[in-house]
Amino acid sequence: MNKTQKAINVSDELEKLFGLPNRDKSGTVLDCLVETILSQNTNDVNRDRAFKTLTKEFPSWEEVLEADVNQIASVVRIAGLAGQKSHAIKNFLTWLHTKYGKLDLEFLRDMDSEEATQMLCQHKGIGIKTAYVTLAFACGHEVFPVDTHILRISKRIGFISSKATADQAHQFWSTTCPEGKAFSFHMNLITFGRQVCDARKPKCEVCPLTDQCVYFQNGGQLP
Ligand code: SF4
Predict the structure, then answer these.
(1) Tell me, what's the pLDDT at 24?
(2) Ligand 1 atom at minimum distance from 214 CA
(3) 199 CA distance to ligand 1 centroid (A)?
(4) Domain that holds residue 76
């Protein structure tokens, strides 16, 4: 079976398990980008706490833009890498304001996905995953972000080599993700990674994907 068909099968199986996830349409595109920068290398709880503190301390993005980078770092410290993240946020806001005269990213909704990705990724602290999450979650673009769960599962099921990097996984999925399924497949793979295909102890005994899984067929290790 080719990998495109295999991806369709896995996506269908996960939809049977978890259904079709809803996209949260609240918040602006810029909110989503900042939240996603804060989410790098931390969990959802700490990301949310950092975002809440940041927006409480600075109720508008204009106020964040005016703030000293150390002030920003001190309020987002809970999310980790505070120095790096505060610089990324401040630098991006400065660029956005200089280029467009306002702190508004809503125009990304109508921009071509590739162009929007390039525009975001030219900034330090914004990689392809952060760009794709922003475009998929806030704008409804058909792009497929690869997180740590998705990278692991992609290797176990045999979509990509055990040595593939996250960048290679993004490249692979940009051509192999089933059409129209980027958001639901992404969300369902993450749920699957949390509930079934755990990093340390995958629950293969209850998994509906054993017949597709290279890791399972290889006795519980990557080839
Ligand atoms: S069979 Fe095991 S390793 Fe393979 S996808 Fe399922 S839970 Fe993960």
Answers:
(1) 82
(2) 4
(3) 10
(4) 29-138
